Amino acid sequence: MKTSWRSASLVASAVGVLVLTTACGQESGTSASSQNVGATAQAGSIAGVGSGIGGVGAGTGASVSASPTDAAGAGAGAQGATAGELAITTNAELGNILTDSKGMTLYRFDADTAEPPKSNCDGDCATTWPPVSADDVSAGDGIDKSLLGEVTRSDGTKQLTVDGWPAYYYAKDANAGDTSGQGVGNKWFALAPDGKKAKAESASAALSVRNDPNLGKIVVDKNGMTVYRFVKDKAWPKPVSNCNDACRDKWPIVDPVDFSQTKGIQEKGYMNFTRSDGDKQQTINCFPIYTFSGDKSPGDINGQGVGGTWYAVAPNGDLVGAPKQ
Asked: Full-prediction pTM beyond 0.70?
């Protein structure tokens, strides 16, 4: 059986450790029951787009509202796209994910249940996360059609399930291959072909890059925790950390990481240095990097903008979202 692959893009892993013998460069800027539907037809339509405003009918289950940051600009996934024949698409960061016949990513919601299948996304939530209709969905090459089913939503429409998990689009995904819904609220995740959450292939990397729905591409550690920079630190002519004592307790330093254990991060200026307290700290583009004690779960960005001096880090070491100097 021939498997179709769409929107494949592979990011080559950098190898080797850069040893700097010259001074570091300056900053470049800021930068209900489920029934099997199998492989029975050709095309379907999205249920629930717009109809959830003001509430979706009467039924069971709590209505989950979208957060303000999820505001619904309607992407391609919310404007008449049909599910049709599902496909497996290889994503450079997430591995294999499920997409519809037009390449739009399918998602699952942690607040839902798979046993028994039940959607808890109604009202405004269903406007931001349009349910994938179960009508006329078919399984493409490599997809186990026995995992495809349907669940009756509170408004009476049938929603596609994958291994029991209700499937959704994300309104902010505008183009085929977009995965901007990945990790939103630490509750929404792209669907893997087996119905599980798609996970970043780089999750085992000590430092890697995550596509945050609000900030864009930012650096995270091996546990998926956001990495930050302190604007009072220096990179030139050599790295200097100005976060010590109580500051360091609140903003733990990132220990040295061999470059071969990173993925997607700029190699130039990647080095570690000895702090004034004698400990070694990692830098990106020669700028010291930290995590934040106020971040409790992967995907949290509670340190962003704190005191107007702490900001997430771009793959090239730039500050993310900081006012231009």
From this structure: no
